[in-house]
């Protein structure tokens, strides 16, 4: 069928030989036109037949996620194309993924071990260099001071000496105290606290020297680049050494051995440098091998990923099927469109042939009263409009689809609020960029906002085209009017007419053929004139769209053969709405055509307050008073017409159904499987008259009050159109023209930049979003609540088409 009604659906039973089950489900997934029902809903996931296979698929998915993480860390990304490994099955893939995972884990462990050793050797080399500088400077200072001591020793007898040599100079060599020392690296951010704790723990009986390492150091424990200091702590005694070692462990300081002898220091530095070069070469070779392995995985990754997802979805679907008592076939039930019957049967036959099954599958249509899912066949143009409707609620099966009318009404109502053909051209150019490059964008992963914009590119294009149309009617190009369709019908009577009012303008030619005459712009009467025009136009558009919604409720009732809704819902709603607001629309049109000065506010107010009074100068046509009284009485009659008959008629229908006066036909069938779906639907729910009456009362009150509030809600078309026009005018007059008036190039450039930024940021982005949301509300609330139930269930066929976009 067309987009107005959803596709006819049928409940189907498939009996599939167990040897052809996997291939059958796979082929149906490629077809994507069959929605399976879960026949094992009472079973837990672990009690189902293919739980073990699902567990295997989950384990393969985990390994593939591990490969993706490894490629991301290495800066690689799987190519969009992949080298297909034709003929690979689930078992072969599982073995291959296991081998690759084990190899990668082993390579990562070896790399971490080598990296840890390399980082420790780098730190050791820094300790050797920095601590060697400490001892070298201390020895140089000691040698210089020793000469001074030798020169003054005979006269003075004693002198202060350097820290390390003091005892050697002033005491007997046999009584000298040997100082110990500990060297290592500590985090620079902990250096001050480290020094303070050492001083307190040893009561000041240590000497600490620190040197800042200029470059970042890779910490062996964490593998991160950090700032560190090299330190040497001098102490005396084993107790002090134990305390210092524990404090170093607490602060995460790495300790390294150090020899005081210069020759041994040089030898150790040489050995460490050689080992660093060897480790660097080994690490580079390992990284190259690791990168080659990841590139090999990357060429096949997408194919493996899709294959694993397909297998998982196939076994998940197989778990929804029930096994026959003989365990030789599987029984499936599900929904499919009627037009897909031949395609599904051909798919079943092909699966039987390819799997060499001895018995063919059985395709059997079941009779049921269960409500089928809703399925609309859409394309890339209509899908976005259908998504707008589905966001409110999925249509009931074969209910009138608002998406058909949304294709036109949604962008048109948006354009009424966004009317400026300059802005419309900018919006259409931006959208055409997405449409021209849609093949490239559809194969890329876009950001959230960009993806949303790309998905609605055809909606935005329609909005832009209608904005150009309404902009031509408003005669606004970035708020500037143009005489596109001929000269203006008005001219100034004298030079001061522009500053006075439109009374200074005289008509010198024929009426401007299309849209608003450009002379209206810039006059004192522009705002009152456009206010009146757009307000009345909003009411006309709103009443027309609400009437369309009520008319669609008639077609729904007629399609579902619901006579009660036609006579006691559609008719009184049409009478009530048009007796009040349809009459207001008629007055607006008559006033436009006749040029009358009648006050419509006065007419509508006193239609209720004093319907029998004479209209006087507010009379627009002969017989208006009688017509008003007739319409007012019709509106009053329509309210009880909506409220009372329907609940009583529904109660009467229910009584007749249970007195045997309205039996439904029974379908004879010997197949118990065919009768099973009807079992639940035959159960009767007791008719609650009070509940039905209260529901009808709420519905009546909602419609009566909604007729007023919904009509007022359409005035947002006027308000947003006026706001858009005034904002555009302010940006043009107060930014662009103001900058132009300074006759300065720099100010002009700044003014143009500010004008462009304000136009794009405010008018083309914020105003577009605002008008979009208001148009969305008018369709969801004011239009769709007149006829659209939106309580259906969307058709969700088993399909492989969406597997590529799924994120596990």
UniProtKB/TrEMBL annotation:
Top-rank taxon, per record: Eukaryota
InterPro entries per the UniProt record, alphabetical: V-ATPase_116kDa_su (IPR002490), V-type_ATPase_116kDa_su_euka (IPR026028)
One GO MF term: ATPase binding
Gene Ontology terms: cellular component: vacuolar proton-transporting V-type ATPase, V0 domain
Ranges in coiled-coil conformation: 90-117
Species of origin: Rubroshorea leprosula
Membrane topology (UniProt): Multi-pass membrane protein
Keyword Ligase: no
Membrane-spanning intervals of the chain: 412-436, 457-474, 537-555, 567-590, 626-644, 745-766
UniProt-annotated location(s): Membrane
Family, similarity comment: Belongs to the V-ATPase 116 kDa subunit family.
BP terms from Gene Ontology: vacuolar acidification
Keywords noted in UniProt: Coiled coil, Hydrogen ion transport, Ion transport, Membrane, Transmembrane, Transmembrane helix, Transport
Name of this protein: V-type proton ATPase subunit a
Biological role: Essential component of the vacuolar proton pump (V-ATPase), a multimeric enzyme that catalyzes the translocation of protons across the membranes. Required for assembly and activity of the V-ATPase.
């Amino acid at each position: 069928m067309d987009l107005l009604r959803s596709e006819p659906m049928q409940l189907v039973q498939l009996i599939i030989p167990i040897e052809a089950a996997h291939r059958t489900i796979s082929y149906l997934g490629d077809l994507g036109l069959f929605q399976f029902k879960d026949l094992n809903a009472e079973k837990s996931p672990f009690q189902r037949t293919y739980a073990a296979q699902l567990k295997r698929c989950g384990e393969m998915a985990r390994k593939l996620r591990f490969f993706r993480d490894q490629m991301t860390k290495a800066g690689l990304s799987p190519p969009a194309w992949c080298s297909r490994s034709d003929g690979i099955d689930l078992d072969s893939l599982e073995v291959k993924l296991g081998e690759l995972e084990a190899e990668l884990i082993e390579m990562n462990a070896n790399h971490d071990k080598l990296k840890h050793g390399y980082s420790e050797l780098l730190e050791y080399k820094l300790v050797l260099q920095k601590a060697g500088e400490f001892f070298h400077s201390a020895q140089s200072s000691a040698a210089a001071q020793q000469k001074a001591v030798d020169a003054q020793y005979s006269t003075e007898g004693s002198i202060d000496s350097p820290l390390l040599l003091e005892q050697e100079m002033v005491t007997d060599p046999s009584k000298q105290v040997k100082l110990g020392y500990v060297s290592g690296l500590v985090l620079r951010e902990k250096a001050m606290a480290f020094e303070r704790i050492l001083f307190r723990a040893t009561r000041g009986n240590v000497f600490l020297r620190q040197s800042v390492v200029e470059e970042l150091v890779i910490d062996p424990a964490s593998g991160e680049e950090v700032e560190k200091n090299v330190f040497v702590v001098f102490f005396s005694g084993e107790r002090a050494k134990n305390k210092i070692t524990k404090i170093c462990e607490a602060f995460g300081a790495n300790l390294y051995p150090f020899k005081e002898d210069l020759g041994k220091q040089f030898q150790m530095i040489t050995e460490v440098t050689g080992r660093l070069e060897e480790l660097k070469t080994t690490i580079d070779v390992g990284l190259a091998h690791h990168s080659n392995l990841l590139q090999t995985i990357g060429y096949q990754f997408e194919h493996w990923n899709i294959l694993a997802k397909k297998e998982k979805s196939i076994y998940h679907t197989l778990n929804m099927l029930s096994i026959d008592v003989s365990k030789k076939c599987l029984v499936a039930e599900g929904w499919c469109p009627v037009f897909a019957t031949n395609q599904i049967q051909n798919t079943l036959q092909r699966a039987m042939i390819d799997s060499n099954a001895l018995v063919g599958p059985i395709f059997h249509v079941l009779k049921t009263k269960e409500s089928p899912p809703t399925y609309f066949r859409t394309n890339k143009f209509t899908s976005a409009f259908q998504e707008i409707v589905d966001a409110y609620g999925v249509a009931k099966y074969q209910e009138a689809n608002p998406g058909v009318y949304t294709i036109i009404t949604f962008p048109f109502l948006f354009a009424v609020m966004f009317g400026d053909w300059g802005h419309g051209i900018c919006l259409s150019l931006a959208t055409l960029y997405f449409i021209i490059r849609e093949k490239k964008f559809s194969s890329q992963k876009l950001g959230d906002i960009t993806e949303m914009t790309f998905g609605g590119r055809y909606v935005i294009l329609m909005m832009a085209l209608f904005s150009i149309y309404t902009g031509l009617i408003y005669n606004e190009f970035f708020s500037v009017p143009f005489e596109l369709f001929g000269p203006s019908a008005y001219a100034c009577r004298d030079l001061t007419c522009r500053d006075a009012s439109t009374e200074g303008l005289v008509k010198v030619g024929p009426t401007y053929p299309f849209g608003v005459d450009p002379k209206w712009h810039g006059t004192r009467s522009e705002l009152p004139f456009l206010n009146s025009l757009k307000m009345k136009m909003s009411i006309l558009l709103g009443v027309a769209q609400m009437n369309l919604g009520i008319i669609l409720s008639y077609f729904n009732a007629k399609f579902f053969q619901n006579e009660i809704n036609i006579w006691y819902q559609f008719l009184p709603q049409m009478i009530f709405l048009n007796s009040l607001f349809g009459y207001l629309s008629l007055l607006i049109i008559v006033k436009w055509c006749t040029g009358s000065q009648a006050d419509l506010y006065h007419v509508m107010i006193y239609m209720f307050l004093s319907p029998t009074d004479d209209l006087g100068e507010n009379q627009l046509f002969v017989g208006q008073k009688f017509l008003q009284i007739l319409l007012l009485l019709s509106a009053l009659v329509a309210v009880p017409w909506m409220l009372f008959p329907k609940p009583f008629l529904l109660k009467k229908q229910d009584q007749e159904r249970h007195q045997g006066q309205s039996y439904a036909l029974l379908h004879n069938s010997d197949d118990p499987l065919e009768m099973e779906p009807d079992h639940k639907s035959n159960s009767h729910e007791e008719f609650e008259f009070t509940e039905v009456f209260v529901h009808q009362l709420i519905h009546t009150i909602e419609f009566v009050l909604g007729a007023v509030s919904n009509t007022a809600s359409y005035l947002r078309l006027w308000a947003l159109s006026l706001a858009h026009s005034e904002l555009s005018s302010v940006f043009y007059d107060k930014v662009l023209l103001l900058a132009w008036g300074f006759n300065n190039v720099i100010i002009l450039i700044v003014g143009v930049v500010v004008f462009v930024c304000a136009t794009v940021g405010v008018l083309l982005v914020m105003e577009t979003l605002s008008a979009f949301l208001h148009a969305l509300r008018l369709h969801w609330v004011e239009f769709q609540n007149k006829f659209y139930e939106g309580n259906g269930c969307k058709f969700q066929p088993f399909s492989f088409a969406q597997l590529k976009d799924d994120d596990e």
